[in-house]
Structures are given as C-alpha cells and as structure tokens.
From TrEMBL:
Organism this protein belongs to: Rhizosaccharibacter radicis
Topology in the lipid bilayer: Multi-pass membrane protein
InterPro entries: ABC_transp_permease (IPR001851)
Domain of life according to the entry: Bacteria
Keyword Transmembrane helix: yes
Name of this protein: Autoinducer 2 import system permease protein LsrC
Function, in words: Part of the ABC transporter complex LsrABCD involved in autoinducer 2 (AI-2) import. Probably responsible for the translocation of the substrate across the membrane.
Keyword tags: Cell inner membrane, Cell membrane, Membrane, Transmembrane, Transmembrane helix, Transport
Pfam families: BPD_transp_2 (PF02653)
Transmembrane feature ranges: 17-36, 56-86, 98-122, 128-145, 165-186, 217-237, 258-282, 302-320
Subunit structure: The complex is composed of two ATP-binding proteins (LsrA), two transmembrane proteins (LsrC and LsrD) and a solute-binding protein (LsrB).
Cellular compartments annotated: Cell membrane
Length: 330
C-alpha cells in the first residue's frame, strides 16, 4: 500500500519539473536569438521581445485557469479582440478618462468571463461548446465597436507601459506583478486550491467539501480579466484595433499550445500560470529565431507543431503509469 503514495509523489515532482524545463528551453532559444541578432543586444530588442511575449503570456495565463479545472476556453482570443476594440475607443483623453477607460476594458473582460461562467456553471454546458458559442458573440460585439481598423490611444500612456525602465521592459515588470499580486495569493486560497481539486476529480472535490461551482466560476472570471489585460496591452502596442476573427483564433490556439508547453495538463488538476508564461515566450521566440536566421515564415507552423507534439507527449508520460489521477496528489 505504501508504494502508491511514493509513486504518486515522484510523478508529481516530475510534473512540476515541466515548467522548469520550459524555462530552460526558453533561455537556450532566447540566448541563441540574441547571438544571431545582427545589431547585437539592445534595449529595443529586449523591449520588443518582451512586449510580444507578455501579450501571448497573458492570453496563455487566461487559458490556464479553465484548463486547470478540466475545461477549456475557446473564447479567450475573442475577448482579447473585444478588449482591444473597446480600448481603442476609450483609452485616450485626460488622465481621468484614461483611467476610467482602462477600468471599463478590464471590467468588460470580467463581464465576458462571467458570461462563460454562467453558461458552464449555471447552464451546465460543456465548456468547449459554451465558449465556442460565446466567442462568436464577443466577436460580434467587437465588430460593432470597431467595424473598420483604426482607433486612438494616448501616446504617453502607451509609451509608458510598452517601454522600459532603466533597460528593463515595463511589460515584463507588469507580467511579474500579475503573477505575484494576483496568481500567487489566489493559488494559495481555498478557491484557488479548488481549481486543482476540481480538475483532478470534481466528484471527489465535491465530496470533500470543495466549492466546485465557485472554483469553476472563478476560473472563467479570472480568464476574462487576464484576456482583458491582454487586449489592453495589444492596444497599447499597436495603438490601433481591428475586429479580426483570424487574430482571435490565433490567440486562442497559441494560448492552448503555450499552456501545454508550460506543463499544464489538458486533463486538468496540475500545472500553473508560471509554466504557461514560459510556454508563451517559447512560442514567440520560435518566430524570432526563424526571422533572424532568414528562414521562411512557412516553417514556423511546422516548428510550433513539433514542439507542441513533444510537449503533449512529455506531459502525458506521467499519466501513462497512473491508473487514478488522484495518485498524483497524494
């Protein structure tokens, strides 16, 4: 009987090593990218890479929360586009107007997450079906807000949040702040721990007194908030907006890939936001490496697919030796 807990602990440790492995892979890839840079290591290069990586990282973090519960959110990309279109209309003017615009954008992201939570928790719809439907609805609202590409955003505000402070990209600092101020305390709360319990086994979680509905709802609310942040950052980077279904789909698919690369199990119950951040930076660095090496952009989907396949295979290895996923958490 004692062999099972020991085996479960060993598997859990190995699964927690996946985010570390993702960090090592990113560090090697980014180091190679800097070596191949024709202009050398410059602050502008670091800022550009950080902005692109932080943008996808926020979307990946949004996707991670529902995945931890054993679900998925196919609407995160559409929420990003919705927030982008709304921000292009509101984030300008006086400092007070900019502040209210930022709150409105983030609040809209939370509202979109609440719609998903209602459909999944109250309506008891399958997450993949519910969020696929809501993504179409969110995209429709985006078209109403921004029927044609354009928009306006305060230049000083955009420069402040997409520039650097003493050579350190501000977007990277904001990403660390989100992890430290939001994810770290939430993951240690009762509701946060409930995400992992629900993803492992919702029936066992319910029998153990875990507030299953509240935990699952918080995942979609948090996903909406993080996707809203991503949409706001996208607006500050591009200083414009476009209601693009292709862009929404790309964000959603890349977020799922980043989640898997970062070590979060698509079965639910294990993983975290930190690994997804490294997974997002890995995906962004692939494109940068192909660019500086003068490779054809047509190769990028192939490399992303190979990395994703390897990450999925590596993440599934612990489950092959476990008859009950709860053994991972004994």
């Amino acid at each position: 009987m004692s062999a099972h807990p020991a085996s479960g602990i060993g598997l859990a440790v190995r699964h927690k090593l996946l985010p570390i492995l993702a960090f090592v892979i990113f560090a090697l890839m980014f180091g190679l990218y800097l070596l191949l840079q024709p202009h050398g290591i410059q602050t502008s290069v670091l800022v550009t890479a950080s902005n692109k990586g932080a943008l996808l990282a926020l979307v990946a973090m949004a996707q991670t929360l529902p995945v931890l519960t054993g679900g998925i959110d196919l609407s995160v990309g559409a929420i990003v586009v919705l927030a982008n279109c709304l921000a292009s209309n509101l984030v300008n003017g006086t400092p007070a107007q900019i502040g209210l615009g930022v709150l409105a954008v983030l609040g809209t992201g939370v509202l979109a997450g609440a719609v998903n939570a209602m459909a999944v928790v109250v309506g008891r719809l399958q997450p993949i079906v519910a969020t696929l439907a809501t993504s179409t609805m969110f995209y429709g609202v985006s078209l109403l807000l921004r029927p044609s590409p354009g928009g306006e955003v305060d230049d000083d505000f955009a420069s402040a949040l997409t520039g650097d402070v003493w050579g350190v990209p501000v977007s990277l600092l904001l990403l660390i702040a989100v992890l430290g101020l939001l994810w770290w305390p939430f993951s240690r709360s009762v509701t946060g721990r409930g995400l992992f319990a629900v993803g492992s086994s919702d029936a066992s979680a319910f029998m153990s007194g875990v507030p299953v509905g509240r935990a699952r709802a918080s995942a979609y609310l948090g996903a909406g908030l993080l996707a809203g942040m991503a949409g706001l950052l996208l607006t500050l980077i591009a200083e414009s907006a476009q209601a693009s279904a292709v862009q929404a789909g790309d964000f959603t698919l890349n977020s799922i890939a980043a989640v898997v690369i970062g070590g979060t199990s698509l079965f639910g119950g294990s993983g975290g936001l930190v690994g997804s951040v490294f997974g997002a930076f890995i995906l962004r660095t692939i494109g940068d490496l192909l660019f500086v090496s003068a490779a054809s952009p047509l190769w990028q989907p192939l490399f992303q697919g190979l990395i994703l396949l390897g990450a999925v295979s590596l993440g599934a290895l612990p489950l092959l030796r476990v008859r009950n996923r709860l053994e991972l958490f004994r």
